[in-house]
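Translate structure to sequence.
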C-alpha cells in the first residue's frame, strides 16, 4: 500500500471517530443547564390565526405566480413579472417576520406586522400603551421596512384580542 493511501484511510477513520464522538449523547451534555436569555414570550393564538390567514392568502398568490412561470404559452414579460412578484412577496414575508421579532424585543408579549396597500399595520399585545411606545415602534418599522408609507400601531390586551 502506498503512503498516500494509508494517510487517506487514516484521515477517514479519524474523521469518522470525531463525527461519532460529537454526535453521540453523553451524560455531560445532558447535565448542562439551559440558559434562557430575555423575557420568555408566548405567542397568542389570535395573532397566530391572523398570520395563518395572511400566509394562506400569499400562498394562493404564489401558486398563481408559479402557474404563470410554468405555463409554456406565457410571454417572457409575464414570466419576468411573476418572478419579480414572487421575490417581492418573499421579501415582504421576511421583513414582516423580522419586524415582529424586533417589536417583541422591545418588551411586548406578541406582535403582528402586516403590510397592506395602505401602509403597515402593527398590532401589539400589551397591557399598557403610550405615545412614546408607539413612536418607538413606528421608528423601528420605518428603519427596517423599505416600503413603509404609513404605519398604524394598535395596542391591544389579551382580553381585547380574545373578544374579537
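Result:
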Amino acid at each position: 500500500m502506498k503512503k498516500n493511501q494509508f494517510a487517506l484511510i487514516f484521515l477517514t477513520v479519524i474523521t469518522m471517530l470525531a463525527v461519532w464522538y460529537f454526535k453521540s449523547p453523553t451524560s455531560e451534555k445532558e447535565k448542562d443547564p439551559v440558559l434562557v436569555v430575555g423575557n420568555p414570550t408566548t405567542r397568542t393564538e389570535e395573532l397566530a390565526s391572523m398570520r395563518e390567514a395572511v400566509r394562506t392568502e400569499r400562498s394562493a398568490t404564489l401558486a398563481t405566480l408559479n402557474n404563470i412561470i410554468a405555463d409554456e404559452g406565457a410571454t417572457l414579460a409575464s414570466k419576468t413579472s411573476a418572478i419579480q412578484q414572487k421575490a417581492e412577496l418573499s421579501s415582504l414575508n421576511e421583513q414582516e417576520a423580522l419586524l415582529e421579532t424586533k417589536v417583541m424585543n422591545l418588551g411586548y408579549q406578541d406582535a403582528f406586522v402586516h403590510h397592506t396597500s395602505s401602509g403597515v399595520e402593527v398590532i401589539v399585545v400589551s397591557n399598557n400603551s403610550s405615545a412614546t411606545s408607539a413612536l418607538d415602534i413606528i421608528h423601528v418599522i420605518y428603519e427596517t421596512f423599505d416600503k413603509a408609507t404609513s404605519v398604524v400601531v394598535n395596542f391591544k390586551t389579551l382580553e381585547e384580542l380574545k373578544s374579537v
